[in-house]
Amino acid sequence: MVLSHEEVPAPRRLSTLLIGLSLASLVSISPGIFHSVHATGLVYVNHATTAEDSASTVVTVQVQVAGVDPFTGWDIQIQSNQSVISPISLSIKGNALEANYSEKVFEIVSCINGVNYTTSPCNSSDGPGVVHSAAVAQQKNPPTSSVYGLLFTINYTVIRSGSYSLLQILRAVIANGDNPVSVTIRDGTYGIPPGEGFSLTASPDFPQIVIGSKANVTLTVSSIGDYFGIVVLAVERADPGLLLYLNMTSTTLSPDHPSNVTMTIAANSTYQASHYTIIVLATSNGLSHTITLPILTTDKPDFTISASPAILEIHATTSGNSTISLGSQSGFSGPVWLSVAKPAVPGLAASLATSDLTISPNSPAATVLDIHTPDSALPFVYLVNITASSQSSSHTLTVFVKPPSPDFRFLLRGSEFAVQPGQSRTFTLILTSIDYFKGKVNLSASSSFEAKEAFSSPSVALDFGNSSVSTMTLTTDVNSVLGNHNVTLTALGTAFTGANVSHIIVIVVTVTQLPPSNTILGLQPLTYVGLIGAFSLVAVVAAAIRKVKGPKNRPWS
Q1: Which end of the chain is more exposed for a tag (fewer CB within 10 A), N or C?
Q2: Rounded to an integer, what distance in angstroms lies between the CA atom of residue 243 and that of residue 260?
Q3: Residue 282 forms beta bridges with which residues?
Q4: The overall pTM is greater than 0.85
């Protein structure tokens, strides 16, 4: 769409100026043509180029001046590659002479693609892709010093996306009245010229960060070819465990002048050591580059402390020891100092073999903690604290000192384990509390032959440190088989802690017969005497009967 332009009848003075501008335009625009005692200003195409505008997109280009000596008119032609971008409109609205000096500027020539939109005709060089603008000021308030700002604006339509076109200044004539003003020119571009662009690198490219701390990564943006532009940086992806900050989000890039941006990465102390990924995106004029940074977060260099055993079981009035070991963690290296703190119990002693240790990742160290316990009528638990300190951290380890699990001793008193069939043997059983056993102990027995067991106290109560006695009577059967037999005694107790404790004693009982010297004709003495007595009684009775009756058929005398 073509923007409307204000058409103003040109007075004769303006026509004369236009002729002067046209004559001047026939001369080469090389800076060496116009000699001036003043500094040479710049006429340039100002456009933030882009390489990714889609087809039919409208692109706006400004033609501007910088440091140009006072002037009152211009005659300028700009050419583009019409197969890439094609001009559609031209406007001098907001030009520097109007905006800065309140001059009324008359548009003399406005040609687009060889089509004129003013009363003045286009010339032979105005063809496809060419924009031609000529204008003069009324000169009521002409500038008196160097001029900066806009001359005119061109709108282009993108024909092919991703292509490149030079916005070339074919002619740039600046005049102050009838006098030409010396200028230099700088062409513009649409898109990125082949072989130009920028690169993005990071150093270090695999940062390692201690959790709870931060690290800096330098993002370097470098020009490729003669590329100029503004590069915008942003973090496209970051894990939530990382906090990121860019010291700048955009930087100006020019050839041979790389730009560095510092990205600060902080590892949140609430996250565990892990691998993370950061993606940084850099864009400039439609070009884009990404860089993927793997991040390794590590624990803070530290050390570990451990005890073996951590629960030290010691009888009262005895000694024991535990090995205290130190190890490096996350690369820690350096000295560690140890100290001991124990309860204020008389007779309790705790000491370290050495209190100064040095460790490194491949060199752990250890020392020995010695503890002596005092006598105690009641169960005890002592907490002995070992504090290990380095220049950066401190850790405390507790060693628990206590007696072994409650127990009791189960003993059998006696040395006679031989018995005859039908006889009995009594055994004395002694139970003693060990390590603060307190509770009831139940006694039982089982035999591998025909016998009966009886306890004087089948259930025995034990208290801390005391002993109790019970007896067991073993009675054999008269028909017990001679030889060795097992008798199993079991003591099953329950401590005040609820733990069950049992002990077993197996005794071998020998069943023997009476010695041969104690029998008469193989009989027990009483049995033998009884039989002899009976036989004697029968003989006496028989003799008496014979004496009363006398001989048969013998007369009485």
Answers
A1: C
A2: 20
A3: 233, 289
A4: no
Least confident of 361-370, 381-390, 410-419, 538-547: 538-547
CA 193 to chain centre: 46
How crowded is residue 307: how many other Cβ atoms within 10 Å of its Cβ? 18
pLDDT value of residue 229: 85
CA quadruple 420, 421, 423, 426: dihedral positive or negative? Answer: positive
Please tell me whether residues 157 and 60 are part of one structural domain: yes
- In Å, how far from its chain's centre is CA 124? 73
At residue 435, what is the residue type? D
- 502 in a structural domain: yes
Contacts of 399 (CB under 8 A, 6+ apart): 307, 310, 311, 312, 322, 369, 371, 383, 384, 385, 386
* CATH value at residue 95: 2.60.40.680
3-class SS of residue 544: helix
Write the CATH number for 317: 2.60.40.10
Question: How sure is the predictor about 520, in pLDDT bands with cuts at 50, 70 and 90?
Answer: low
The contacts found for 453-462 with CB under 8 angstroms, 24 or more apart, are: 453/487, 455/429, 460/431, 462/408, 462/431, 462/432, 462/433, 462/437, 462/438, 462/493
For residues 428 and 407, what is the distance between their CA atoms, to the nearest angstrom? 20
The encoded tokens of residue 278 equal 């950061």
Residue at token pair 């993002």: 219
> Rounded to an integer, what distance in angstroms lies between the CA atom of residue 477 and that of residue 471?
20
**166 and 20, same structural domain?**
yes
The mean pLDDT of 440-467, rounded to a whole number, is 93
Amino acid at 196: E
